[in-house]
Design a protein that fits this description.
This protein is an alpha/beta fold. The protein has ten helices and ten strands.
Length: 366
């Protein structure tokens, strides 16, 4: 997973070298074709980005995959230094969408979450980044916001986009806790009554033949990596009382694999992961994240209490389809992996699996 120097985003906030994105200038579909940065350093950045994306695409080959593209990028576009950097960032995202999306690979361009950017403004940014060519958009990555709230936001985005796009919601740590009286209160989930499926249909139908209806069918098609940080911890601690529960509730669930600048040979890294999934006849979920590192974003920890290992939250619903369109709940942020030395993860490094964090997510308490 991620090396220690990389933060995961949470409440749509910062990560070391977060790559932001969002713009008030509408470039439209032709913006990418017309714009080339005059700044040599920015031109090099664009070239480096496109080279990385080409490597990612080469690693996918012809194997089906779900790709979450650049968490927080559009929501953080205003952190770019100026209009040229913002336009270049949109060009990069548009290039990635056009390069990665295919009939077998579903690309979801990240759109932050419902409490971040107003839907009208986010719709402008999504269009400028070529959402029309993507399969859909992703919401709530590494966040704690309620699933129902994200679904409402997705419908508002569709309205303001003027097109119906599918979406995925990260439910890895936005679950529902039970109080002592047996009533549920939301720590970020749909609630028991709202979590039912509505005539579910698999959103991977273009990638693989339908394997049947329902949440079980979807889960069976998604790849569960046997070498996640959680799985490795379980194998290394067979006598720990938590090992069995972590194995069942976290390690045995399909979660996304993150790729970024720490993967020096991105084509080989992606190829290795998708090959492992293909051998099991599964569909992997991959995250293309934080590329390039300069120009936009920052590493401020001033608001870390809002996003960094926030205590008092639980696991959300396991990966599943949410509705008859095939919109999905996914575990994009691997549960139990730390955001860094903060909050419930005090003393840990970013990307490190913490049994303490995992226990809190399984119980909703300390």
């Amino acid at each position: 997973m991620l090396p220690p120097v990389v933060w995961f985003p949470a409440v749509g906030r910062r990560v070391i070298a977060i790559i932001a994105a969002s713009v008030l200038v509408v470039l439209g579909v032709f913006g990418y074709l017309l714009f080339r940065p005059a700044n040599p350093a920015l031109e090099l950045e664009v070239h480096t980005y496109e080279k990385w994306v080409n490597g990612f695409a080469a690693g996918l080959r012809d194997r089906p995959a779900v790709v979450i593209l650049e968490p927080d990028a559009l929501a953080e576009l205003n952190a770019c230094r100026g209009s040229a950097e913002q336009q270049a960032r949109l060009q990069m995202l548009s290039y990635a969408v056009q390069t990665l999306h295919s009939k077998r690979d579903h690309v979801y361009l990240d759109a932050g979450h419902a409490n971040w950017v107003p839907p009208g403004q986010m719709a402008i940014r999504l269009r400028a980044a070529d959402i029309a060519q993507a399969y859909g958009f992703s919401l709530n990555v590494s966040n704690y916001q309620p699933t129902g709230q994200q679904i409402s936001y997705a419908h508002e985005l569709d309205r303001d986009l003027g097109m119906a796009k599918r979406f995925v919601v990260d439910t890895s740590r936005n679950g529902v806790a039970e109080d002592p009286h047996g009533t549920s209160h939301s720590a970020g989930g749909l609630g028991h009554s709202a979590a039912r499926l509505d005539n579910p249909a698999g959103s991977l139908s273009r990638a693989r033949p339908a394997a049947g209806a329902g949440a079980a069918a979807l889960s069976n098609r998604l790849f569960t990596n046997p070498d996640t940080e959680a799985a490795q911890w379980v194998r290394a601690h067979p006598g720990d009382p938590l090992a069995r529960e972590i194995g069942l509730r976290i390690a045995d669930q399909p979660t996304a694999q993150w790729f970024g600048p720490w993967n020096h040979d991105i084509a080989a890294a992606v190829a290795g992961y998708t090959t492992a999934a293909s051998r099991r006849h599964k569909v992997p979920v991959l995250v293309a994240y934080a590329i390039p590192r300069s120009g936009c974003g920052g590493d401020s920890m001033s608001d870390a209490g809002e996003w960094c290992n926030v205590p008092g939250h639980q696991l959300g619903s396991a990966p599943r389809v949410l509705d008859s369109r095939g919109d999905m709940a996914l575990w994009i942020k691997p549960p139990g992996e730390s955001d860094g030395n903060c909050g419930a993860g005090a003393g840990t490094q970013a990307g490190e699996f913490s049994p303490t964090i995992a226990k809190q997510l399984m119980t909703g308490g300390p």
